[in-house]
Write a structure and sequence with these properties.
Layout lengths: L3 E5 L3 E3 L7 E2 L3 E5 L2 E6 L11 E4 L4 E4 L1 E6 L6 E2 L4 E2 L1 H6 L3 E6 L12 H17 L6 E3 L11 H9 L16 H13 L5 E2 L14 H7 L3 E2 L11 H10 L3 E5 L4 H13 L6 E4 L12 H12 L4 H7 L2 H7 L14 E5 L9 H6 L5 E7 L2 E4 L13 E2 L2
Parallel strand pairs: 1-6, 2-7, 8-11, 11-12, 13-14, 14-15, 15-16
Antiparallel strand pairs: 1-4, 2-3, 4-5, 6-20, 7-17, 9-10, 17-18, 18-19
Helix pairs in contact: 4-5, 6-7, 8-9
Zinc ion binds next to loops.
Length: about 400
């Protein structure tokens, strides 16, 4: 018998789609983890549900995506020697994470056989293990000198889908970077480049010339990680490259707002995607993506429903993921949001635009309830209820 999830009595459906961020709907039905129907309850077949959730008038958004994390193994990070950090992010509404390289691994192998083995191990391990229920797309090898086309072919055939940040390994020139990124692309592996000053001792500056020449699919932390490029270079990247503009929490906030405003002026908001770049020297921020949404909406003066698209549909499109949108055929991963208790905002969207964080009342991953009221966000005024 199929697992049928019915979510009814939704106050506001935030689709994640920049072109149509709010849907005229109050009900979502998913079968075996895939969204089947979105619309008005009277128009949808809600019979024979295995699970029914009464949203109690709260808002439903796609599960948030963190486009930039550095996992290592299991739910542990050596960066701040912390356990359970991924599970904590689930309580911030994140259901999907993309690895920008398992670079914090103690003793990280830098020889080619070793780096390939580590990438394949990380891909397999996180495919089989979802900390708290979060899907982590890991196994992101960092480019090192001496890699040849066959290495990318082999990695792709082994299930590797993403490169770690270009620039964190020994490849630090645009000519080599461009050649390797093109090999990766040929075999369906997506690439990200580090942008800005060094993150930690041992990494180095990647300026706009190297970013433009390498032409990776994602301009990783365009607002620096944490040291940003000069404003003129950030603007040039927005104007001259067609690639994704990733803004991260562990970056320069002012530079992030500059990138957002430039993308808005260029009418290229679809390129803006969000990540945390955690774990980092600043630690792990379980509410990092929610904080980015509120920061960019309030200080960047964009509607909250648009800011949510940056962390959902935009990232899914740029990263070729089947989540991030509330639409038939997409993964049934959701976060239920409501105005935090005592917020000065009139409603959820107004509270985000005023800079407050949303309260998370429930998270669903692939059609299964992973948490109810978040232990980390300010308490949501209303929370959904499982009625069956
Ligand atoms: Zn970086």
């Amino acid at each position: 018998m199929p697992n049928k999830l019915v979510i009814r009595n939704i106050g506001l459906v935030l689709s994640g789609d920049l072109d149509r961020p709010i849907l005229d709907a109050d009900t979502v039905v998913a079968i075996d983890g895939v969204i089947q129907a979105v619309g008005k309850e009277k128009d949808i077949d809600t019979s024979d549900a295995t699970t029914t959730v009464d949203a109690k008038g709260t808002s439903l958004a796609p599960g948030l995506i963190d486009s930039h994390v550095h996992p290592v193994c299991g739910d542990w990070t050596p960066r701040q020697n912390q356990l359970g950090w991924i599970d904590s992010c689930l309580h911030g509404g994140v259901t999907t994470m993309v690895s920008a390289g398992e670079v914090h691994t103690p003793g990280r192998p830098k020889d080619i056989v070793g780096l390939k083995a580590m990438a394949i191990f990380a891909q397999r391990a996180f495919h089989a293990f979802r900390p708290g229920g979060v899907k982590v797309y890991a196994g992101a090898p960092v480019l090192e000198q001496g890699m040849v086309e066959d290495d990318f072919k082999e990695l792709a055939a082994s299930g590797v889908k993403f490169l770690g940040e270009v620039g964190l390994g020994s490849v630090k020139d645009g000519v080599t970077g461009r050649r390797m990124v093109a090999w990766a692309r040929k075999y369906g592996i997506q690439s990200t480049i580090h942008t800005g000053g060094p993150s930690i001792p041992g990494s180095s500056l990647i300026d706009k010339d190297m970013v433009l020449e390498t032409d990776a699919d994602v301009i990783g932390h365009v607002n620096g990680g944490h040291t940003a490029l000069p404003d003129s270079q950030i603007k040039e990247l927005c104007e001259r490259s067609p690639r994704a503009l990733e803004i991260v929490h562990n970056g320069n906030e002012r530079a992030g707002l500059l990138a957002l405003r430039t993308a808005k002026e260029l009418r290229q908001m679809h390129r803006v995607i969000l990540g945390t770049d955690s774990p980092a020297g600043s630690g792990v921020q379980p509410l990092g993506i929610l904080r980015m949404i509120s920061m960019l909406s309030s200080l960047g003066e964009i509607p909250a429903e648009i800011a949510i698209c940056l962390a959902t549909g935009n990232t899914a499109k740029m990263r070729n993921l089947n989540c991030g949108l509330i639409a038939a055929g997409r993964e049934a991963s959701f976060v239920f949001l409501d105005t935090a208790q005592q917020s000065a905002g009139k409603n959820l969207l107004d509270s985000i635009q005023k800079g407050d964080l949303a309260g998370v009342g429930m998270v669903i991953t692939d059609g299964l309830i992973t948490i109810q009221r978040s232990r980390n966000t300010p308490p949501a005024t209303r929370v959904p209820e499982v009625v069956k």
